[in-house]
Amino acid sequence: MTTQTAPQPLGLATRIVGLIVAIVLTGIGVIFGFIQGVAVQTIILAAIATLAAFMWGWRFVLGQFAGEARPASEGPGELQRVWLQFRWPLLGLGLILLVFLVLSLTIETFFNIWNVISLLILLAIIVLTRTLGQQFQQNKSAFIGIMVLSGLFSVGAMNIDGFASSMNIKSMLLFASFLGIASVGQTLVALLGGLDLSIPFIIGAANVGLLYLMGLGVPPWLAAIIVLVIGAVLGTINGLLSYKLQGQALILTLGMGFAISGGVQILTSIGSAYSGNVFGTVPDWLANFSSMAGTTFGLPFPPVILLWGLIALVLIVGMRVTVYGRYLYALGVNRTSASRVMISEMKYWVLIYAISGFFAAMTGGLLLGWSGGGFIGVGDQYLFLTLAAVVVGGTSLLGGQGGYGFTLIGVLVLQVLSSFLVGIGLSFQAQQFIFGLLILPMVALYARMPHIRTQI
């Protein structure tokens, strides 16, 4: 049984350093207050609040950090121990404060009450993640994801007009549904220790192929079934080939994706001058299913959101309580041990890739209902986003650790972040840059964590 260590008072030298930092920060706030023309009474109250809040945080939060490791001695040695143990969190806090200071000096209207509150929320997330995260070791990535999601939404709601409106929330959930369904296969494949880079190409092929079949006179419901079956067949081929060529799944699925995309463009462009694009009429039921104007049993949200919720529920529960889910985790942890208890690695490998192809084709069909026209490149963005959702959620790319519940959190984090970046006016290229900065440290973080097979 573990015991909780109470926060311990800091030594004299550490308290003096905290007081100096608090005075500096308070002085900066006072200077900015006068520059912005804030009332003197407000400046005084804000200065007192800043000084008191920082000293409280320095004394009790840092005391919690050092609760178990800090000896009772004081003096320079104590500061050195604190710095060596917590230098990265402290450097992170300092970097955030420095960025905020630079932005306040360079952007005239940046220093305002809402941005200050946003800064405090960001700092609170870092502190809570560092302190409370120790209590959630088994699901630490999920806890971090929920904290980041809450912080992003709070900051966006305070700084962007309409961010928390029902229309924007519905929009975020709609696009999160497309990404969430596309990420089903990537999550399951990652649990086995593989990758499926054919997903965006199957999405584009299904998007074009579905409208092409309907244009040939095939009933929409039958065309949808044909596209889903073809997606599963392509996934099965991916699974068979990647299983036979162990260690080559990444290159093989990427090459398969290019072949699928090229083949569909050749087929649909016969007799047409619009290669990669197919024009036609999307059925009303499909448009209602995936568009912002769609309704579900009379309620004002598109059915695709409900579909994603049901898929997520089945996967999260099924992966935890069924024997098939446990076998999948067992294969991801250690294939040799799983094979010795008669778990067929080939059967699961091929089945998971078939499921990935099925859900990729489903995403392509659903995107047709949203866009109203077929385009072979509609899935391009999902090459990066499905991987990002899996990694940000905390599912290990080495296999055997994580699950779709983690991916669901990752999807929501990416979608809220995307909406936030659009809301502050960043271009698509800038958004990709931010996403890259987000995924790199997450990959580094999980790469440094010991794989589950080394812990048993």
Task: Please explain how this structure is put together.
With about 450 residues, this protein is mainly alpha-helical. The protein has two domains: about 10-115, no CATH class; about 170-455, no CATH class. The protein contains 17 helices and two strands. Strands 1-2 form a two-stranded antiparallel ribbon. Helix 6 packs antiparallel against helix 14. The protein is globular, with a radius of gyration of 26 Å. The chain starts with 11 loop residues before the first helix and ends in an 8-residue tail after the last helix.
Based on Cα principal axes, name the global outline. Answer: globular
Mean pLDDT: 76
Q: Gyration radius, to the nearest Å?
A: 26 Å
Total number of domains:
2
Order of helices and strands: HHHHHHHHHEHHHHHEHHH
Number of helical elements: 17
Give me the count of strands: 2
Low-confidence stretches: 1-8, 65-76, 450-456
In a nutshell, what does this entry contain?
The protein has helices at 12-35, 40-65, 76-106, 113-131, 140-159, 166-192, 199-215, 220-244, 249-268, 284-290, 303-321, 323-333, 335-340, 345-371, 382-393, 404-423, 428-448; strands at 277-278, 374-375.
Note the topology.
Elements: H1 12-35, H2 40-65, H3 76-106, H4 113-131, H5 140-159, H6 166-192, H7 199-215, H8 220-244, H9 249-268, E1 277-278, H10 284-290, H11 303-321, H12 323-333, H13 335-340, H14 345-371, E2 374-375, H15 382-393, H16 404-423, H17 428-448
